[in-house]
Amino acid sequence: MRRLAALVCLLVPLLIAVPARAAATPMQVYGSWHCGNDACIWGAVRDVSEFDQKNHWLIDRGDGRPSVNVVVLSFVHPVKLLHKTTDAQTLDGVPRGMTADIVNYFKSRGIRVMLSIGGITYTDAWNAALAENAAQFGRNAAEVAQRLGVGIEIDYEENSGADLAGLQSFIDAYRAVLPYDATGANHAARLTIDLAAGDRWLIDIGRKATADWLRTTAPVLDYANAMVPARQPSASAAIANWQEHLDGKPTYAPPIPPLAPAKFTGSLYIAEGNKVLPECTAFGASLQNTTGTFVQTAAPNGAGTSSGLLGYMFWAAERPSTRGVTTLPPNTCEGGVGGGATAYSIPIPMPALRQS
């Protein structure tokens, strides 16, 4: 008995010293960028029946429930939006394929829709639109958002000499029309930004966004997406990238402040190269499975109060490139993306987002 009592005395302090594991925070954002059938141009009107044949997995993971709760139609050309261009592929500044019918295809199933402006191909066009009339550019984006009932994503991938003053004017003009809405009830008020996978690319944009637009105390943008890196990462590399946003870069001059977990998502590929990816077809073997604990429990490190990233974004549905694999049948993503939606009990429709 004395030996048992002594053993208990030794073990109790050790048990007390073990930190409690952070409780998993439910994911709130779980979505996919969508490149249409022409590598992100969306240059032609789609028949809804034909579109459904190619993309049904997004609205039905196999049991009638959607696989995602947000779809981001990619991409809108910045200068064409500024000028409200009408040409063979564009109508009043918006790609002809981004129609109200396609938006309603998703929204009628409880899936939010956003339009992404830019992408790396349109970086020069972003620079040109901001230089010409950033405020009008922002107002035009807000008008399209209201007309279609969608949010807007800023995908400005200028790695050197980004026009931050112009981008501020764009955001100010958008917010003058559509103020920040923490409830998420006004879909057109949802304004997000894409940042690099970690903090070592798009440094100026990342610093500005983290310091001024993604603060939990005075938010301007709803959240950021930490984009995919050049190729599908390992689980450890993905986590290391996302941790950079949480930690910031205090040694940079000027430093990049830490980003609250509640203010960004992590991103993974579902179509890349020539091999079908488990992230698309097999949740059990996927990165959204092996990184899921981190995404749900990542602790704040100087910004925010709650643990866990907002969730995942996936690049990209249908045909993201003129070459390589797609998410077209038979390589649809119910088993990977849809499987994750089930495993993580993704809420559909998307709820009001955590603010801190």
From TrEMBL:
The keyword Lyase does not apply. Transmembrane segments: none annotated. Keywords: Signal. Pfam families: Glyco_hydro_18. GO terms for biological process: carbohydrate metabolic process. The keyword Signal applies. InterPro entries: GH, Glyco_hydro18_cat. Residues 88-227 form the GH18 domain. Residues 1-22 form the signal peptide. This is GH18 domain-containing protein. It comes from Planotetraspora mira. The lineage of its organism: Bacteria, Bacillati, Actinomycetota, Actinomycetes, Streptosporangiales.
